[in-house]
């Protein structure tokens, strides 16, 4: 028997093996790129969620007013505080009635309860709606709500107090103000 020349067959084998390596490498790179894109997308979602929860979602617009609790020009304390709020830029709509409100001054700390009617001592409500087309307690972009707060104990003159507004989602917003030395029926609080 005569031995055949196998040089051409070896080249064909090498080409088949090379093609197999290229196909396996292409599939592997496709899988790795897909996993990388998936991981990148998940990381981006986590960052956006974290920013939404860490960012302050509401802000105070305009002047915070305090209303005296007596008669005449020199009243004993402020029994009602009003502030107008709106969403910060880029924030999603939120249900304001589900917000938790805490009043704190040097001698008192209390949780104020939301009421849909008129606020009474120890409560708060939404007293005015601006641009609220849907007529609900959900604060949406371009809307403003005026909130009325009535702590049980009225802060007297020269008293620094804090109203902490904690929405369901988002960071805490604080309103820190001081009552004036002489309390009038209507006071702009700074």
Please provide a written account of the structure:
The chain folds into two domains: 1-54; 58-189, Immunoglobulin-like. The radius of gyration is 32 Å and the shape is rod-shaped. β4 (100-104) and β5 form a beta hairpin. The chain has one helix at residues 7-54; strands at 58-68, 78-87, 94-95, 100-104, 109-114, 123-130, 138-139, 144-150, 160-166, 173-178, 186-189. By secondary structure, it is an alpha+beta fold. It has a nine-stranded mixed sheet, with no helix packed on it. Strands 3-7 form a two-stranded antiparallel sheet. The model has no long low-confidence stretch (mean pLDDT 88). Helices cover 25% and strands 36% of the residues.
Key phrases:
single chain; 190 residues; alpha+beta; Immunoglobulin-like; 2 domains; nine-stranded mixed sheet; two-stranded antiparallel ribbon; 1 helix; 11 strands; archaeal flagellum; transmembrane helix; cell projection
